[in-house]
Amino acid sequence: MAGLLYRLGRFAARRRWLVIVSWIVIIALAALGYGLFRGTISSSVSIPGTATSKVTDELTRDFSAASGGSGTLVFTTENGDAFTAQQKTEIGALLKDIARDRGVDSAVDPFVNQRKLVDQRTKAADGSTKIADARKQLADAQAQLDSGRKQLATAQQQVDDQRAQAEASGQLAAAQPHLDAAQAQLDTQQKTLDANQKKLDDNAATLEHKQQTLTDSKRLLALSTDLRFVSKDGATAIGTLQFSTPAIELPQSLKSTIIDQAENADIDGVAVHASNDIAQSMPAVVGAGEIAGIVIAAIVLLVMLGTIVGAGLPLISALIGVGVSALGALAFSGVVEFMSATPTLGLMLGLAVGIDYSLFILNRHRTQLKRGVDVHESIGLANGTSGNAVVFAGATVIIALLALNVTGIPFLGLMGTVGAAAVAVAILVAVTFTPAMLSLIGPRILNKKERGTIGHADHHRVPQKPMKTWRAIVTLVLGVAVLGVIALPAAQMRLNLPTGASENVDTTQYKAYKAVEDAFGAGQNGPLVVVADLPAKVVGDDALLTQEVAIGEKIADHKHVVTVVPIGASDDKTSIAFQVIPSGGPDSESTEQLVHSLRDSSPISTDAGDVKLGVAGNASGAIDVSEKLGQALPLYLLVVVGLSLIILIIVFRSILVPVTATAGFVLSLLATFGGLTAIFQFGWLGALFGVHDPAPILSFLPIIMVGVLFGLAMDYQLFLVSGMREAHVHGASARVAVQRGLHAGRAVVTAAAIIMISVFAGFIFADSAMIKPIGFGLAFGVLVDAFVVRMLLIPAAMHLLGRAAWWLPKWLDRIIPDVDVEGAKLERTHPVGDHAAPRSTSRDRSHSATPEKGLPVAGHSREAR
Predict the structure, then answer these.
(1) Can you tell me the distance from the alpha carbon of 112 to that of 276, in angstroms, rounded to the nearest whole number?
(2) Whole-number Å distance between alpha carbons of 19 and 432
(3) Beta bridge partners of 107
(4) Please, which pLDDT band fits residue 850 given cuts at 50, 70 and 90?
(5) How many of the other CB atoms lie within 10 Å of CB of 327?
(6) For position 852, what pLDDT does the model report?
(7) pTM of the entire predicted model
(8) CA 375 to CA 381: how far, in whole Å?
(9) What kind and span of H or E run contains 422?
(10) Contact residues for 568 (Cβ-Cβ < 8 A; gap 6+)
(11) Which end of the chain is more exposed for a tag (fewer CB within 10 A), N or C?
(12) What is the sign of the dihedral through the CA atoms of 281, 323, 286 and 780?
């Protein structure tokens, strides 16, 4: 690989304009692809196959009225008073206008909804009064009928008595016509009484049915006592929008249209805020924070390299790589569903590693030029040595990111793939475009003073003594203790997706979230949808009402339930859907407990049989996504740690060096998780990082950080410890080699880490609630791993291990390949000028030195060949 990169560097140096123009053409093609084939970027996070997604699919399939997504517009009076009649009219007119937008099925006026709700409750109260009046009327009628029956019975007795007397006196024949007429009249009256009694019985039965229906309706209304569309003080109202497509498929153009209509409504004294469902969009790619990060990186480069042209080259290389990778990836957004954070992660990585990888090659080239090496030969050697290390280090990042696909989570695999592509492009730019630009710049990559000393030997002092053992012990113990303390909050880390409360305080979605929370309760921001699958098809409205009451009351019995409202039956009448408003917000522990409680209670028993419950909604979906990601994290961490050990054993030809490197990575990762939890979940130092409403950690952030930080940690491990290995192989004692390797690599690693931290930290102040914690996590992770683990703890551990650090079983030494990461063989075959000697001076004083007698130096025989 080193020889191939050497030849590639020489080619790029000779054909510099061909290489430069080629990259410009590639950017143009990527931009063309983006312009022609770009699609919609989604702000939603979902995982197929979760419990929520299954219920959502059922809603889409079986509930035609609920197949589309929904969103809300929140209206508040600016002075805190109740809405005036004029304001209500204008709000209704605005919602009617929005309802005409293509893709909007309906826009419900909150004041109309509130009136309907009040009317329902009023009708229920009036119904009780009417039924009571009807009962009294029935009772009066029954009393009249009973009185009539008594009178009829008396008359019948009289007729019977007359008949008996006539019969006794022998006058029956004469009295018979009169008696028959009287009896006929009594029979007619009896029939009338029987008919009236039947009518009264029917009316009583009807009244009982109405009473039962009214009772059920009251029970159902009692479940939604706290349901409101206009706040109690009349100063806040919620307008509901129903869309024809699911929320995840809602085009950004429709969202933008609705937001524009809301912002331009100009209702005097009323503020209009769109909820997160409508207002959330793709985060801005570049903001003030990102620019500040790049400026800091430029300053670091300028201080380190001493020339403007030198400082600008890594930045230009990074921007070329980012342009190609970002535009190229987004060109596929028309056929692959991209989450908004996906291209941003690629941008972060592309910028950070693009600058660093170009810097590594540039720095080696500058060192060689100062020793008198020809420009083109120096470019080839820098590409074959540092470029070789860049390729290997970048490969570890790529492998770690691609390994995200093993989690089986589509959006996470896509994020890893896009990030890996950005790193791959950064590597290609570093080993082709950077050499071409170095050829174009020529000796001007050095400042005037440096050009005046070209060819002079490098007399930098090289450490001859190891660090003090007591210092190594103190450093290791203190460092582990400090990182352990920082990691403690990670034990309480909770995962969820961001809500409107996580957005910047001046955004419409934040204002909407807080207005709803203050006026209606936190649960109104995260209602659940519960679907009850019935044991048989329900027939008739009465049977449906009975089932709604029975199931609704079972749901309401769960802890943390505030309101239960039936929202309709499925088209085939085999399922009923309910809206359930919890007591806590969508990211609260109580809501998470409620979701699990509802699912665990299924099936529930009713008079009609067992009913199965399923839970959906944004809050439920976020809980499922977080749990799925939490379950995938240990497996992914195991894959990455195992991969780390294998790669490092091959690179360093040692067992204990990879073990310490991996242990250091795990320690820095846990410390990073602790820092994230303390700031974003607990709110410590929240004001400093723009955390105004502490919340659970972004659910996919831990697993993303494992992949990214592993690759970056291996970068710094490679550039520092490979120098220690080289010094040891060339004769330095194990402990002196630690100091020499650290001395040789710390300057460039320090600069590279500062640059990477600056780029990542710039994203902490982004507008998106998803991007903030990603930026902080990566910046803090690099800070901890580079400056604490790699430059303090690893050297201390290596010192304490001594010669044992480089032990490798002979059988393993024979079977593992010799990767020659630093291109040492290439250097020996191209000893131009005093290049070889000064390089050994900087690390070991002599390439011909032999290892300390009796040292078990793994790989020494291969290096000597």
Answers:
(1) 24
(2) 7
(3) 241
(4) very low
(5) 21
(6) 37
(7) 0.81
(8) 10
(9) helix 410-428
(10) 63, 65, 66, 576, 577
(11) C
(12) positive
Given its phi and psi angles, is residue 446 left (phi above 0), alpha (psi -120 to 50 degrees) or beta? beta
Provide mean pLDDT across the span 636-659. Answer: 83
279 within 8 A of 512, measured Cβ to Cβ: yes
Closest C-alpha among 693, 716, 705, 703 to residue 780 = 705
385 and 836 in contact (C-beta within 8 Å)? no
In terms of pLDDT, which residue wins out, 856 or 70? 70
Range with lowest mean pLDDT among 456-470, 558-572, 747-761: 456-470
Residues 280, 286, 288, 289, Cα dihedral to 10°: 90
CATH topology of domain 527-616: Alpha-Beta Plaits (3.30.70)
The dihedral region occupied by 653, where left means phi > 0, alpha psi between -120 and 50, and beta the remainder, is left
Unique residue bearing structure tokens 């954070």: 341
Q: Is the pLDDT confidence value at 507 over 90?
A: no
- 8 A C-beta contact, residue 452 and residue 430: no
Question: Token digits for 268?
Answer: 């005097």
For the chain, counts of helices (H) and of strands (E)? 30, 13
Maximum pairwise Cα distance, the chain: 163
Mean pLDDT of all residues in 464-483: 92
The more confident residue out of 593 and 463 is 593
Say which amino acid occupies 442: G
Whether the Cβ atoms of residue 68 and residue 246 lie closer than 8 Å to each other? yes
Residue 461 reports pLDDT greater than 70: no
Dist CA 73 CA 407 (whole Å)? 37
pLDDT per residue over 811-848, tens digit each? Answer: 888 888 877 666 666 666 666 544 343 333 333 333 33
User: Looking up tokens 């071409």, which residue turns up?
Assistant: 436
pLDDT in the model for residue 325? 86
pLDDT score, position 849: 34
Q: Which residue has the tokens 């903001």?
A: 287
Cβ-based neighbour number of residue 89 at 10 Å? 14
Determine contact, residues 302/308, Cβ cutoff 8 Å.
yes
Contact indicator for 710, 396 with CB cutoff of 8 Å? yes
DSSP for 177-229, please give it: HHHHHHHHHHHHHHHHHHHHHHHHHHHHHHHHHHHHHHHHHHHHHHHTTT--S
Residue 450 identity (one-letter amino acid) = E
In the block, which residue shows the tokens 């593992």? 816
What are the phi and psi torsion angles at 447 (to 5°)? -75, 175
Domain ranges of the chain: 2-40+284-492+624-864, 113-223, 527-616
For residues 713 and 790, the answer to whether their CB atoms sit within 8 Å is yes
Q: Examine residue 48 and say whether the peptide bond preceding it is cis (omega within 30 degrees of 0).
A: no
Question: What would the DSSP string read from start to end of 231-291?
Answer: -TTSSEEEEEEEESS-GGG--HHHHHHHHHHHHT---TTEEEEE-HHHH--PPPSS-HHHH
Q: Which has more confidence, 863 or 158?
A: 158
CA distance 293 to 740: 32
The pLDDT tens digits for 519-566 are 999 999 989 999 999 988 888 888 888 898 999 999 999 999 999 999
Under DSSP, is residue 808 helix (H, G, I), strand (E, B) or coil?
A: coil
Q: Higher model confidence: residue 83 or residue 41?
A: 83
Tell me if 734 sits within 8 A of 728, measured CB to CB: yes
- The strand pairing partners of 239, in sequence order, are 73
The amino acid that residue 400 corresponds to is A
Closest CA to 91 of 74, 106, 104: 74
The tens digit of pLDDT for each residue in 568-617 reads: 888 888 999 999 999 999 989 999 999 999 999 988 988 888 899 999 88
DSSP state of 803: G
Q: Which residues contact 651 (CB under 8 A, 6 or more apart)?
A: 392, 718, 722, 819, 821
Spatial contact of 734 and 802, defined as CB atoms under 8 Å apart: yes
Q: What is the spatial distance between Cα 339 and Cα 558, in angstroms, rounded to a whole number?
A: 35
* Identity of the residue numbered 191: K
Query: What is the Cα–Cα distance from 455 to 374, expressed in whole angstroms?
Result: 10
Q: Is 74 in contact with 240 (CB distance < 8 Å)? A: no
